[in-house]
Amino acid sequence: xxxxxxxxxxxxxxxxxxxxxxxxxxxxxxxxxxxxxxxxxxxxxxxxxxxxxxxxxxxxxxxxxxxxxxxxxxxxxxxxxxxxxxxxxxxxxxxxxxxxxxxxxxxxxxxxxxxxxxxxxxxxxxxxxxxxxxxxxxxxxxxxxxxxxxxxxxxxxxxxxxxxxxxxxxxxxxxxxxxxxxxxxxxxxxxxxxxxxxxxxxxxxxxxxxxxxxxxxxxxxxxxxxxxxxxxxxxxxxxxxxxxxxxxxxxxxxxxxxxxxxxxxxxxxxxxxxxxxxxxxxxxxxxxxxxxxxxxxxxxxxxxxxxx
Length: 308
What we know:
By secondary structure, this protein is mainly β. It has one helix and 21 strands.
């Protein structure tokens, strides 16, 4: 009896170990994206576009780019083909006036625009229903949240990134800062959630801390979220010689807790305000602003991001 029980116990232990090993092997691919490295390669195209804060939407006709520029609407729109040839499009903001940091997301009631609006005393994040699927015009704008309003003079704030979650809710990632800290990197990333894409509630905690800005969610796949960001304009260097901004990559399993961002680009030129989408598995097309904060002269560039 003792010998028989030992044999059965041994077989049971082997079966459990085998099951655990198979389970570990099956789970490995889902975790691979968190362990591998990324490459960022600039594309050999000349878009001929000035401005900052681009937002891209892939369409059947090419890449539609909204960007902040010196135009009456505050935001200019172009359609760019795969070769980098861009054509200006007509954009109307209606009664909203000039807007900036423009982004769009699919809500339960349709496509909706999100943007920063500035008046004589404040900056605020507003949203409005797109009147057409291309969102070249939109309807009446409403405030997203009373917490997404700051004084007009507030620095290191804004640049909302609206994202449709797998369950249909909409989350806005946004830069917020505690300027009383008197640090060179005061920026943190907060998030707000909404079931209808109109009324938002702030989520607890920070998504990122330590001077990261300009978030762009590239993937919301289960257990494999991907975000590209920039560091703040005051991070690194000195007051008289600021370090050019760089782009970073970070991953998450749930869109709330993110890994420490890893640097993608060098400091030969400032790179910020990334936006993009997945071309094929683990390969993304990225648009971003390039230039120097000292002369405030920025142009829009294009690159390819790959997971090795």
